[in-house]
Amino acid sequence: MAVEQYSPPGLRYSLDALEPSISGQIMDLHYNKHHQTYITNLNKALKETAEALSNGNLVKQLELQSAIKFNAGGHVNHTLFWENLSPRSTGDSDTASAAPKLHQDITTALAIQGSGWVWLVKNELGGRLEITTSKDQDLPVPGNLAVLGIDMWEHAYYLQYWNNKKEYLNNIWAVLNWNAAGKRYLGDRRAIYGDLAGLASRL
């Protein structure tokens, strides 16, 4: 049985291109280590699940479900996150100054206890925009389409900002890719998740 395997998305910018908002050191650790670990663990869990299916090992299949959900979520969320960012020189973040209320509301991320994500989502039925959060590597709840996501795990900011999440949020604002967010807002699930749409739909 062929098992689908995943690989890291290519970045449209160099690891140090988001400085001073996000240091090259953090990007290297975050992209090359943390994101790659989610992918490695996801591929391993998918391969082991396929083996368990062929052997009829239901217990093993059930045991692997949490690993698949966590690591697949990590891969999908981080892929969206890299697309959410853009060097200042590209001009993709220029419209940020026109959204002060959104900036203020996104600081709900400061209320996240433990690790998780803050999302700007569009409700699929009414098209209304909302700020939500999710724990660990969970995606936005079904019915909400991710327009913009910010990683609030400590590995995303601690080396540079220590425990100052507010400073991290204030600085990441300058490199948020509003061009990509606008395309997601106007698009559907496939437009948002791209090649990972199938994987995202199973989480």
UniProtKB/TrEMBL annotation:
It is found in: Mitochondrion matrix. The keyword Manganese applies. Transmembrane segments: none annotated. Destroys superoxide anion radicals which are normally produced within the cells and which are toxic to biological systems. Destroys radicals which are normally produced within the cells and which are toxic to biological systems. Belongs to the iron/manganese superoxide dismutase family. Keywords: Manganese, Metal-binding, Mitochondrion, Oxidoreductase, Transit peptide. It catalyses: 2 superoxide + 2 H(+) = H2O2 + O2. It is an enzyme of class 1 (oxidoreductase). GO terms for molecular function: manganese ion binding; superoxide dismutase activity. This is Superoxide dismutase. Pfam families: Sod_Fe_C, Sod_Fe_N. InterPro entries: Fe/Mn_Superoxide_Dismutase (IPR050265), Mn/Fe_SOD (IPR001189), Mn/Fe_SOD_BS (IPR019833), Mn/Fe_SOD_C (IPR019832), Mn/Fe_SOD_N (IPR019831), Mn/Fe_SOD_N_sf (IPR036324), SOD_C_sf (IPR036314). Residues 6-86 form the Manganese/iron superoxide dismutase N-terminal domain. Residues 107-183 form the Manganese/iron superoxide dismutase C-terminal domain. One of its GO terms (cellular component) is mitochondrial matrix. It comes from the Eukaryota. Mn(2+) binds at residues 30, 78, 151, 155. PANTHER family: SUPEROXIDE DISMUTASE, SUPEROXIDE DISMUTASE 2. Gene3D superfamilies: Fe,Mn superoxide dismutase (SOD) domain, Iron/manganese superoxide dismutase, C-terminal domain. Homotetramer. Its cofactor is Mn(2+). Its EC number is 1.15.1.1.
